[in-house]
């Protein structure tokens, strides 16, 4: 419809017509490049300041775990209650040592335990502490599991309490083995395939910008399990802990 064709402003015939639209294009992409650089810069800057919000240290957590394992082993008589004794001893110690952060300690409350499907692995977890920059959970599986570790944006420390975890990186032909008392440190950016034997339970500690890690944790819900009830409870307990911590000034 030639009649409805309106030339754009500055749209003349010939080679000269290209230059204004080209410069518009260059400006548009220039703005996008600057925005992208700003976002990358902001993210990198955010990663240099988050350590001022951390309260826990891997060394102290390891020490608390070792102490609880020993205490539980001394008290223990029955293998059937072993894991629950170790976990409750540990949880009480953490809450005693760090009253300045909020802890959920009611591990007998089944309503606050949730399944977690991520990277093809399935386990269940109890959130002991969740704030914007740190989380501490009990994670494991009574039947065992295997899957992709996820490519984390933060350092992740797995303190094995019972059972056994094994893992390897692509290119390795043998596995790393982690037994009770061992710490499996998943460094930022590293990916592994991991497996957990039946009745493996671990204290997992992660630090970094926690909200940025949640998409991996939820991906399997949207693309595999469609278990929205579990998603609801996960968001409920995570949100509750984060808000409780914000209210007492723990970022
Ligand atoms: C944890 O503590 C134990 C006992 O003190 C020590 O042998 C081990 O090397 C520590 N592990 C890490 C990863 O720091
Ligand atoms: C209890 O758990 C610890 C750590 O996983 C293990 O070393 C110990 O053998 C267990 N004890 C019993 C009685 O199952």
Q: Can you walk me through this structure?
A:
The chain starts with 17 loop residues before the first helix and ends with a helix. Strands 1-2-3-10-5-8 form a six-stranded antiparallel β-sheet. The protein has a four-stranded antiparallel β-sheet with strand order 4-9-6-7, with no helix packed on it. A hairpin with a 7-residue loop joins strand 6 (about 165-170) and strand 7. About 40% of the residues lie in helices and about 25% in strands. With about 250 residues, the chain is α+β, with helices and mostly antiparallel strands. The longest helix is centred in the first third of the chain and has 32 residues, at about 20-50. The chain is globular. It contains five helices and ten strands. The site of one 2-acetamido-2-deoxy-beta-D-glucopyranose (NAG) has 7 residues, from helix 2. Pathway: Steroid metabolism; ergosterol biosynthesis. Belongs to the ERG2 family. This is C-8 sterol isomerase.
Entry keywords:
251 residues; alpha+beta; Jelly Rolls; 39% helix; binds 2-acetamido-2-deoxy-beta-D-glucopyranose
């Amino acid at each position: 419809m030639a009649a409805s064709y309106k030339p754009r402003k500055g749209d003349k015939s010939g080679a000269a017509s290209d230059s204004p639209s080209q410069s518009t294009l260059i400006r548009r992409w220039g703005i996008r490049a600057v925005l992208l650089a700003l976002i990358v810069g902001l993210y990198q800057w955010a990663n240099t300041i988050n350590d001022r919000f951390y309260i826990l240290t891997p060394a102290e957590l390891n020490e608390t775990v070792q102490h609880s394992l020993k205490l539980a082993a001394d008290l223990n008589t029955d293998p059937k209650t072993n894991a629950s004794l170790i976990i409750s001893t540990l949880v009480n110690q953490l809450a005693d040592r760090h009253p300045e952060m909020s802890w959920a300690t009611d591990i007998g409350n089944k309503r606050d335990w949730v399944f977690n499907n991520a990277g093809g692995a399935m386990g269940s977890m109890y959130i002991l502490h969740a704030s914007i920059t740190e989380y501490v959970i009990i994670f494991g599986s009574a039947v065992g599991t295997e899957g992709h570790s996820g490519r984390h944006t933060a350092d992740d420390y797995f303190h094995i309490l019972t059972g056994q975890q094994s893992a390897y990186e692509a290119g390795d032909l043998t596995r790393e083995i982690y037994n009770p008392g061992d710490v499996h440190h998943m460094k930022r950016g590293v990916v592994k395939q991991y497996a957990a034997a039946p009745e493996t339970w671990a204290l997992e500690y992660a630090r970094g910008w926690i909200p940025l890690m949640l998409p991996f944790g939820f991906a399997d819900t949207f693309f595999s399990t469609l278990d929205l009830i579990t998603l609801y409870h996960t968001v409920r307990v995570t949100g509750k802990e984060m808000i409780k911590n914000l209210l007492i000034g723990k970022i």
